Amino acid sequence: MTSNPPTSASAAPNHEPAPGWREAMTVYLQPRVLIVLFLGFSSGLPLALSGSTLLVWMRESGVDLGTIGLFALVGTPYTLKFIWAPVVDALHVPLLSRWFGRRRGWLVATQLLLIVAILLLALTDPAHAPLFVAIGALLVAAASATQDIVVDAFRVESLPENEQAAGMASYVAAYRIGMLISTAGVLFLVSAYEGTGLARADAWMWGYVTMAAMVLIGTVTALLATEPEQSRRAEAATSGETAFTRVTRAAIGAFSEFLGRTDALAVLAFVVLFKFTDAFSGTMTAPFVIDLGFSRNDYAAIVKGVGLAATLIGGFAGGYVARRYSLVTSLWIGAVLQALSNLAFAWLATVGVNQWALALAISVENFTGAIGTVIFVAYLSALCQNPLHTATQYALLTALSAVGRTYLSAGAGYVAQATGWPAFFIISVAVAAPSLVLLLWLQRRGHFAALGPVKV
Question: Where is the Major facilitator superfamily (MFS) profile domain (predicted)?
C-alpha cells in the first residue's frame, strides 16, 4: 500500500529555523490538523480489507496461492482513480454537496458507499464463491480510492502552509494505524468472535461488519469539519459554468501540465516502480506467515504491537532522512533499505516457527517500509507544484504508484508456488533493480536538482 502526498506547498524551501518541540506539538493540536489526522485513519482503514486481510481469510478458507495472488487485481481502482478524479474535483453530489459543501459532500458520500461495500463483502464466501468475493472487494477498493481523491483535495485546500508538514505527518501516521486496525485488529476480532462459539465463516463476517461500523469515524469527522475556503472560492468562481466545462478544465490542465515537463515518462515509470519491491513481497507476506505455521493471533499480535512501533519509528526516521539529506540521496536510502528488508523474510523462511524471528522480520519490514513511504511522499509533493490541479495530479501519481501493488504483483503467488518461500523473497529484492536504474538515470539528467529542496 502507498500513502497519499501532501500539498505542493510542502515542496517549498524552508529557510526559517526549526521550531522548538513545544511549538511543533502545538501545530499538531490545531483543529485542521486533527481533522486531517482522522481523515487519514479513514483512508487507511479500507485498503487491507480488500487486500492482505482478505488474503488471510481466503487462505484459511482453503483458496490456492495462485488465486490469492490474482486477487491483487481487485486493487485496479487505485490505479485508475485519476480517470474520475476530475469529476470529483469539479462536480457535486446531489443534496449532500448542498448541505455540507462540495468536498464534505463527497467525503460523506464515499464513506456511505464504503460502509455498504464492506457489508456486501462481509456476506461473501471465499471458499465457494470467489467471484462474488472479487466483486465485493472491487467495490470496496473503488469506494476507498474515491475517498482518497477527496481527502487529498480536502487536505490541500484546508491546511495553511505552516500546518502542511504537521498535516502530512499526522495523515501518514493515522493512515498506517488505520491499516493496522484493518489487519491485526480484524484478526484479533475474528479470533474473539470464534471464542464466543461462532463458526469461522460467521466470525469473519462479523469482523468485517465491525470494520464497516468503524468507517463512521470518518463520517463524523467530515460532519464536524468545515468546508475549505479555497473550495468555496472555486465553487463561486465556476458557478456559472457547465459541468462538462469544469471537468474538462480539471482533466486537461492537470495532465497536460505534468506531461509537458522534461523526462515526464521516465518520472512516471519511476513512480510506478519505486515501491514495487515492497508491493511484490507484501502481497504474499500474510499467506507466507500462515503457511509457515504461525497462528492468526501470533501474526496479529506482532503486527499490532511490534509492527506499529516499528512503523512509527520508521516514519520519524524517514522524516529525519528527508530533512537531513538531499531528495535524491534520501530516495537512494529509502530504495535500498526497502529492497534489502525482504531478506529478513527469506531468513525467516529458513528459521521456521519462531516468534522472535517473526517479530524481527515484521519490524524490519515496517521500519524500512515507513522510511521509504515518507521519502516517496516527499518526492511526490515536489512533483505537484500547481495548486490549481493538485488533487487530480495527486490522483494520477498515487494511482500510478499503485500499479506495482495491483498489476505487477498479481503473479507473486505463482512465483512463490514455483520457487518456494526463501527464493521468492530473494527475487523480491531483485525486482527493485529497475527502479534503481531509473533513479540513477534521472539523477544524471538533473531531475531531482531541478525540483529543489523539500520541506517535510
Answer: 32-446
